[in-house]
Amino acid sequence: MEQADIKQIIRMAGGATALAKRLGIKSPSVHSWQKVPPARVLAVAEITGIPAWEIRSDLYPTPAEYASCVITNGSEA
């Protein structure tokens, strides 16, 4: 699955200024993003409604990928 484009993410949040305000940061920070920083992914997902795995597929597995991992006693089987 492809990651959501940063421009699409910002647009879904109502623009860089609106997103920055909701995150409690300055808009130039948002404008400088090439990708959503790891520490901001969950907040941005909540604000935009875009799932975390679409924002940063390199950090968050899709539900199908997650379900295919079998965890036993804290380690993968």
Task: Give a description of the structure.
It is a single chain. By secondary structure, the protein is mainly alpha-helical. The chain has a single domain, classed as Orthogonal Bundle (434 Repressor (Amino-terminal Domain)). It contains six helices and two strands; from the N terminus they run ααααααββ. The chain has helices spanning 6-12, 16-23, 27-31, 41-48, 52-55, 63-68; strands at residues 71-72, 75-76. Strands 1-2 form a two-stranded antiparallel sheet. The mean pLDDT is 89.
Structural class per helix/strand content?
A: mainly alpha
Low-confidence stretches: none
Helix-strand string: HHHHHHEE
Shape: elongated
* Arrangement of strands in the largest sheet: 1-2
Q: What is the class in the CATH system?
A: Mainly Alpha
Straight-line distance between termini:
25 Å
Radius of gyration: 15 Å
- The CATH architecture can be given as Orthogonal Bundle
In terms of quaternary structure, what is this?
Answer: single chain
How can the largest sheet be summarized? 2 strands, antiparallel
- The proportion of strand residues reads 5-15%
CATH topology: 434 Repressor (Amino-terminal Domain)
Number of domains: 1
> Approximately how much helix is present in the residues?
40-55%
CATH superfamily: lambda repressor-like DNA-binding domains
Strand tally is 2
Mean pLDDT: 89
Task: Please tally the helical runs, counting DSSP H or I stretches of 4 or more residues.
Answer: 6
What descriptive keywords fit this protein?
2 strands, 77 residues, elongated, mainly alpha, two-stranded antiparallel ribbon, 434 Repressor (Amino-terminal Domain)
